[in-house]
Design a protein that fits this description.
single chain, alpha+beta, three-stranded mixed β-sheet, 14 strands, 15% strand, disordered N terminus
């Protein structure tokens, strides 16, 4: 348990909020609608006349753009004001240092990966609904700014006591649904995604299909955090060295190399080593319009249980000219000061 001032939070509690932010299961619509109505009451507003469901943020934004009977947006009252009041209360209770520690122990643990996901979803909505239409992009950006983030509000809710007024309604939606938009007459609420794939760093990542997908087909494709086209991923399984060399987009070519494997690419390209010494073999792949890929092939001196020695490939700076220089760089040393007693 992390104790901060007069409040405390457990790692299990933070993990529960993390799980809510990453939930990729159907929304609990009854619980979400109850949370929406409670959030309106906490804000001193009449409950919305109706709750309208959308299968993705894209669908919600498209609906809001054409709707004429939603009334004015009330995000300020429903989300911004209660958040500001609770933050002010905790800041006064804990002091500046205590509040900072509280945030670091709770929402700060979840913020970066969740904020990055929110940005990617918003960009995906813009790309699909507006493309190069500047007027449409400006309109959609304003709609996105009016969103309450539902499950993706988990980082800041984790910092507060969200089981009581004034945040309990907002927390109820966070636990049960995706993004939502509060208007005077209606609330538009999104389903949660049906798939979410991320790498160990929390970046969107999937080589077999969408990294993030919603029930209506709205999806984001990514490889280790980098956005890629859906057709590009489908092509990865049939890559050849010639196809990799022919790719003009340097970022996509790097993805191809990572997927294909640098060592496999070297072997299949009949590459020639540029330097050998007692530490290993230096290889270089020249790529048009991009910096070269330079790697050191090293043999583990400690045998495996079956007596074999495993080969490792270490990527090193493009300016590396000798194998020892590259190996030394991986240890943060210069070649002339790298003299291991025993390599492992």
């Amino acid at each position: 348990m992390d104790r901060v001032g007069e409040t405390s939070v457990t790692s299990d509690e933070v993990q529960r909020w993390r799980s809510r932010a990453a939930a990729a299961v159907p929304a609990d619509r009854a619980a979400a609608e109850a949370g929406v109505r409670l959030a309106y009451r906490r804000a001193g507003l009449a409950e919305p006349e109706r709750v309208v469901w959308a299968d993705s943020p894209r669908a919600a934004v498209a609906l809001i753009r054409t709707a004429t009977d939603l009334g004015r947006a009330v995000r300020e009252q429903v989300r911004s004001a209660p958040w500001a009041a609770e933050r002010r209360r905790l800041h006064e209770e804990l002091g500046a240092e205590g509040w900072s520690a509280r945030w670091a122990a709770t929402g700060g643990r979840l913020w970066d990966t969740t904020a990055a996901l929110v940005d990617r979803v918003g960009q995906g909505v813009l790309d699909e609904l507006a493309a190069g239409d500047r007027k449409a992009r400006a309109q959609i950006r304003l709609i996105l700014l009016d969103a309450v983030l539902g499950q993706h509000d988990a980082p800041w809710l984790a910092a507060f006591d969200a089981d009581r007024a004034p945040l309990d309604g907002l927390a109820g939606v966070c636990r049960s649904a995706g993004w939502w938009w509060p208007f005077e007459k209606a609330a538009v609420v999104c389903e949660r995604p049906v798939a979410l794939h991320r790498d160990e760093a929390g970046r969107l990542d999937c080589g077999e299909g969408p990294a993030l997908a919603f029930p209506d087909g709205f999806a984001l494709y990514a490889w280790r955090g980098m956005p890629v086209p859906a057709a590009f991923l489908a092509e990865l399984r049939t890559l050849t060295p010639d196809r990799i060399r022919a790719e003009e987009n340097a970022e996509l070519r790097r993805v191809m190399l990572e997927y294909y494997g640098y060592d496999r690419y070297l072997a299949d390209s009949a590459a020639v080593p540029v330097h050998r010494d007692e530490t290993g073999t230096l290889w270089r792949i020249d790529l048009a319009g991009d910096e070269p890929v330079v790697m050191v092939e090293v043999l583990n001196s400690t045998p495996e249980p079956d007596g074999t020695h495993r080969t490792y490939w270490l990527r090193v700076p493009p300016a590396t000219r000798e194998a020892k220089e590259g190996v030394a760089w991986t240890f943060g040393l210069r070649a002339e000061t790298y003299a291991p007693v025993r390599e492992t």
